[in-house]
Amino acid sequence: MTSIGKFIKRLLWAVLLLVVAFHVLVAGLLLIWKTQPINNSMFMLTHRLTGGSVTQTWADYDAIAQSAKQAAIVSEDSKFSQHNGFDFDGIEAARKKNEASGTMSAGGSTITQQLAKNLFLTSHRSYVRKGEEAVITVMIEKLWDKQRILTAYLNVAEFGKGIYGIDAAAHHYFNKSAAKLNRDESALLIGMLTNPKYYGDNQSDRGLRNKQRIIKKRMNNAVLP
């Protein structure tokens, strides 16, 4: 074997070891976070590293208003309580929508997939990241129950510049805890998730208010875990 061949072989082994080590780390954190509050994520870490401050307080499942949980499901993942991490009908619908529009506006990601990205990955789009997202999604679904997944998602999602988690958002925008959010407030906050930095400064935006109305109308159809 030539020196170049040996170098490539060593490089491949090094990459493999890094991948294995990363997934061991992910598994370890998921086991810890199965019962412990989550007060950091890759998105929060990135925000801090770029000079921003982060506001986030953990709220357990029962400390989050039912309306907020309903709103998250009907807006982000209507089949959340039934699937195993992937909504293949939603993925196909998003693919067709993107083909028709010629853009990547529709993602089709489930709540578990979004949680995997928020906790361990970045917003950068690539096939490698999507592959990692899929692997971590399977790990989350195997290690956590649906209540824990929904709780974690609502606690690490971004609701504005440096505002992470439903409780921090409730205090920031409405001066109350997540447990006391009403239907209008819950629908508005969940509607912000598609573009939190913009909507955080533009709460009267017509698009956001339309989302709020749609979410509120569908809220009672949510199947909670």
UniProtKB/TrEMBL annotation:
Record's catalysed reaction(s): [GlcNAc-(1->4)-Mur2Ac(oyl-L-Ala-gamma-D-Glu-L-Lys-D-Ala-D-Ala)](n)-di-trans,octa-cis-undecaprenyl diphosphate + beta-D-GlcNAc-(1->4)-Mur2Ac(oyl-L-Ala-gamma-D-Glu-L-Lys-D-Ala-D-Ala)-di-trans,octa-cis-undecaprenyl diphosphate = [GlcNAc-(1->4)-Mur2Ac(oyl-L-Ala-gamma-D-Glu-L-Lys-D-Ala-D-Ala)](n+1)-di-trans,octa-cis-undecaprenyl diphosphate + di-trans,octa-cis-undecaprenyl diphosphate + H(+)
Domain annotation Glycosyl transferase family: ranges: 53-219
InterPro entries (UniProt xref): Glyco_trans_51 (IPR001264), Lysozyme-like_dom_sf (IPR023346), PBP_transglycosylase (IPR036950), Pep_trsgly (IPR011812)
GO cellular component terms attached to this protein's record: peptidoglycan-based cell wall; plasma membrane
The organism's place on the tree of life at top rank: Bacteria
Pfam families: Transgly
Pathway in which this enzyme or protein is active: Cell wall biogenesis; peptidoglycan biosynthesis
TM region positions: 12-33
GO biological process, one term: regulation of cell shape
Keyword Cell inner membrane: yes
GO molecular function, one term: peptidoglycan glycosyltransferase activity
Keywords assigned by UniProt, alphabetized: Cell inner membrane, Cell membrane, Cell shape, Cell wall biogenesis/degradation, Glycosyltransferase, Membrane, Peptidoglycan synthesis, Transferase, Transmembrane, Transmembrane helix
Enzyme Commission code(s) on record: 2.4.99.28
Membrane topology: Single-pass membrane protein
Subcellular location: Cell inner membrane
Stated family: Belongs to the glycosyltransferase 51 family.
Record's function text: Peptidoglycan polymerase that catalyzes glycan chain elongation from lipid-linked precursors.
HAMAP family linked: PGT_MtgA (MF_00766)
Protein name, UniProt field: Biosynthetic peptidoglycan transglycosylase
Organism this protein belongs to: Psychrobacter frigidicola
Gene designation per UniProt: mtgA
